[in-house]
Design brief:
The complex is a heterodimer of chains A (about 180) and B (about 550).
Chain A lengths: L1 E8 L4 H13 L4 E5 L10 E9 L12 E6 L2 H6 L4 E10 L20 E3 L1 H8 L5 H10 L6 H11 L2 H15 L2
Parallel strand pairs in A: 1-4, 4-5, 5-6
Antiparallel strand pairs in A: 1-3, 2-3
Helix pairs in contact in A: 1-5, 3-4, 3-6, 4-6
Chain B lengths: L2 E5 H11 L4 E4 L6 H7 L5 E3 L3 H13 L4 E6 H17 L5 E7 L13 H7 L3 E2 L4 H17 L4 E6 H4 L1 E6 L15 H4 L3 H24 L4 E3 L6 E6 H11 L3 E6 L1 E3 L4 H8 L3 E5 L5 H8 L18 H9 L1 H4 L41 H11 L3 E3 L24 H12 L7 E6 H18 L4 E6 L28 H8 L3 E5 L4 H13 L4 E6 L3 H6 L1
Parallel strand pairs in B: 2-3, 2-4, 4-5, 5-7, 6-7, 10-11, 10-13, 14-15, 15-16, 16-18, 17-18
Antiparallel strand pairs in B: 1-8, 6-12, 9-11
Helix pairs in contact in B: 1-2, 1-6, 3-4, 10-13, 15-19, 16-17
The chains are: A alpha/beta (about 180), B alpha/beta (about 550).
Bound molecules: thiamine diphosphate (TPP).
Thiamine diphosphate binds next to helix 4 and helix 17 of chain B.
Chain lengths: ~180, ~550
């Protein structure tokens, strides 16, 4: 079973990220379940999306200490979900923090051994700041066992044709970040 | 057939299409909204002004011989309860299925009601899928059941089922020919003289359904490797139970949750040492079990609040004193919260940051409306929509919020109780919510005369639930142009003399309009008009 948690702020595209991962594992013939957050939380609230892939998946909910991977589209939100990560799990997290309304304090947001990536900077350089998630998927791909072709197919299957190239570029740049 | 990752709601919509359903009418509400949107890709679907209208329209389509459907969130069923209670008596023409999506955990809702009780009190069969494949299959099946037993059928969903994606295979659409229309007043005209025999018919139907549920293949036994623990469960709670207990337990998985069987539970009970009912929210299945004399464990050890986690179930069920079937009573009250305490994570050493609640978007026109209200220090009767976010800091500008429409009707009650509050209290309601159920409250203000001030925040969309069009926006779900209902004309038509329209970014104008309205001795409406910012970006 592979359990992945994607943490971000409403509007950052966590669902899109999860759908790419879902296609990727499904193409390997695995059972896949994702759980998403729609509605009110998307107004800038915390959004946690979970994905499980394996022989047979029961609930898509990942319990504390059970995530193999954490993909953090935003650093504070990644820290919030740190308890879900397994002790031997790996985290790929954006260096970016989006302030919480009414909070000025700065929190330690990156765990030991986490791969921290300037996802926004790289996405902007790739040509579209909204491709932060593709950058982080690129970073994650170094730890996952999928071919370039599998990744490309999964990305193409989930983005509008006119945005495929910039997403693939951001993905590649994320790989070497 | 093609297998793909489908959202639960998308799978329900696919089921509608495959079942030959030709009329869908709903009012949006998280987590049910995507069903109707997806349905519109294949069949006729519309947004009604509210759930009562949508269900009545669906009953009409069923009366006319079509397979019809309506989806709503749990609280929407409260609004639609009136027609549905009696549609239980009339039965159906073409199959009629009503989906209701509960929200364990109040993800986006104002309460955590358990809609299964409606099945019992309306005397309607209810099915509950646990994943997308079941969403699709049960939707198709619900239409068959509806026609076979001459009854509307309830399809119970939940946030986790509606908003999870899992692998589902599409089936072949089966075209449905409209049933012939036959005039039949005894069936369709619910006067007391017809309702009494109709009630007899309903009771007989419940007996027949009760018999059918004893053998329905929707309820299945999944055997584990040990016979210690048996679990009766349904929906996402069943998936969580399997996640938590795996092969250590056996399961009686219910697909039909009303009516509930007796024989198969007795059979299942015989094969296990300890029988648990794992259900989120109320003890609906547990009560049925106890009524029939089964010794079960459930809510004494498990919370009636929120969504279960696998850990919570393991703690309650596998903890030493729970697994030994001893008679210890477990301290209840302990389990009434799902909120973990903030402690540093042992692995990362990170402390969870403070919560990040949703907020009004930057540039949202509602900011302007609340800024003027705050400046004048007003008491606010709030309503449901994005503007409910005006209740959280830094605005903290809302003093009351109950259900859709209650800002306007509630303000009337406030002013009857404390007339002097008229100078410092306003109601705030969104455009979609005004069409849903604000109109009748405003009619009451005019009729029973309070000098109320009502602000309609017209952002030209139903923003909170995903930007659905509404009667005021000039377009339909199918993308056709429609006459846009005009707020000013409607308010004047209801008898409000003082109707002003302002741009909420124009603080001076809004403050002036508010000051004038609050001072007036008659009802006033101020329409704060400016389009939603994110809608603009998306277009
Ligand atoms: C009876 C009922 N039906 C549906 C909902 C879901 N719901 C919450 S707010 C809302 C509509 C909000 O639209 P509007 O009033 O125009 O405000 P906006 O979000 O655009 O500011 C809906 C449909 C609900 N809470 N209660």
């Amino acid at each position: 079973m592979t359990n992945i948690v994607i943490a971000g702020v409403g509007g950052q595209g966590s669902i899109f990220t999860a759908k790419i991962l879902g296609s990727l594992y499904m193409a390997r013939g695995l059972d896949v379940k994702l759980t998403e957050v729609h509605g009110m939380a998307q107004r800038g609230g915390s959004v946690v999306t979970m994905m499980k892939a394996g022989e047979t998946v029961c609930s898509p909910l990942v319990s504390a200490g059970e995530a193999d991977y954490l993909i953090g589209l935003e650093a504070t939100e990644a820290a919030r979900t740190a308890e879900l990560l397994a002790p031997q799990g790996a985290a790929f997290v954006s260096s970016r923090t989006i302030p919480i309304a009414g909070q000025s304090a700065v929190y330690a947001v990156h765990g030991d051994g986490w791969k921290v990536v300037d996802a926004l900077g790289i996405a902007t350089e790739a040509g579209n700041p909204r491709c932060e998630n593709a950058v982080l998927l690129g970073a994650f791909s170094n730890a996952a066992d999928f071919t370039e072709d599998e990744w490309e197919a999964a990305i193409r299957a989930n983005v509008k044709p006119n945005l495929a190239d910039v997403n693939l570029k951001a993905f590649k740049m994320g790989q070497s970040a | 057939m093609e297998k793909r990752l489908m959202l639960g709601n998308e799978a329900v919509a696919r089921g509608l299409y495959e079942a030959g359903c030709s009329f869908v009418s709903s009012y949006p509400g998280t987590p049910s909204s995507e069903i109707t949107k997806y349905a519109s890709e294949h069949i006729y679907a519309e947004w009604a002004p509210n759930e009562k209208v949508s269900v009545e329209a669906s009953v009409g389509a069923s009366f006319a011989g079509a397979r019809a459907f309506s989806a709503m969130k749990h609280v929407g069923l409260n609004v639609a309860a009136d027609p549905l209670f009696t549609a239980s008596y009339t039965g159906v023409g073409g199959g009629l299925v009503i989906a209701v999506a509960d929200d364990m955990g109040c993800h986006p809702s104002q309460n955590e009601q358990d809609s299964r009780h409606y099945a019992l009190s309306m005397k309607l069969p209810m099915l509950e899928p646990c994943d997308s494949q079941e969403c699709l299959d049960y939707t198709r099946l619900a239409f068959e059941l509806s026609e076979q037993y001459d009854t509307p059928v309830l399809l119970r969903l939940s946030t986790r089922v509606s908003h999870s994606r899992s692998v589902a295979a599409e089936g072949k659409p089966k075209p449905y020919d409209l049933k012939d229309y036959v005039k039949d007043a005894r069936k369709w005209v619910m006067t007391p003289a017809n309702a009494r025999p109709a009630h007899v018919k309903v009771e007989k139907r419940m007996l027949a359904l009760g018999e059918a549920c004893e053998t329905t293949p929707l309820n299945t036994v999944i055997r584990g490797t040990e016979n210690k623990i048996g679990v009766i469960s349904a929906g996402h709670a069943y998936l969580t139970a399997r996640e938590a207990l795996g092969d250590k337990a056996s399961y009686f998985k219910l697909g039909m949750i009303y009516p509930l069987p007796v024989g198969p539970i007795a059979e299942f009970a015989k094969t296990v040492d300890e029988l648990w009912v794992i259900e989120e929210l109320d003890d609906f299945i547990e009560t049925h079990c106890r009524k029939h004399g089964f010794k079960v464990r459930g809510k004494a050890d498990l919370s009636p609040l929120g969504e279960y986690t696998a850990q919570q179930l393991r703690d309650a069920i596998l903890a030493p004193c729970c697994a030994c079937s001893c008679e210890t009573t477990h301290e209840s009250g302990q389990n009434t919260t799902n909120q973990p305490q903030p402690t540093p994570d042992i692995h990362s050493g990170l402390c969870p940051p403070p919560p990040r609640p949703p907020v009004l978007c930057p540039g949202c026109p509602h900011w302007g409306s609340f800024a003027a209200i705050k400046k004048l220090g007003l008491t606010v009767m709030g309503d449901i929509g994005c503007y409910t976010l005006g209740a959280s800091p830094p605005l903290s500008a809302i003093d009351f919020c109950l259900c859709m429409g209650a800002s306007v009707s509630g303000l009337h009650g406030v002013l009857k109780a404390r007339p002097e509050f008229a100078k410092s209290t306003v109601a705030v309601i969104g455009d979609s919510t005004f069409w849903h159920s604000g109109i009748t409250g405003l009619l009451n203000i005019v009729y029973n005369q309070t000098p109320a001030t009502v602000l309609i925040l017209d952002n030209a969309t139903t923003a909170m639930t995903g930007h659905q069009p509404s009667p005021g926006t000039g377009e339909t779900l199918m993308g056709q142009k429609a006459p846009a209902a005009d707020l000013e004309t409607v308010c004047r038509g209801l008898g409000v003399q003082s109707v002003a329209t302002v741009d909420p970014r124009d603080q001076k104008a809004l403050e002036a309009a508010l000051t004038e309205a609050l001072a007036a001795d008659e009802p006033s409406v101020i329409i704060c008009r400016r389009s939603c910012v994110i809608q603009e970006v998306w277009r």
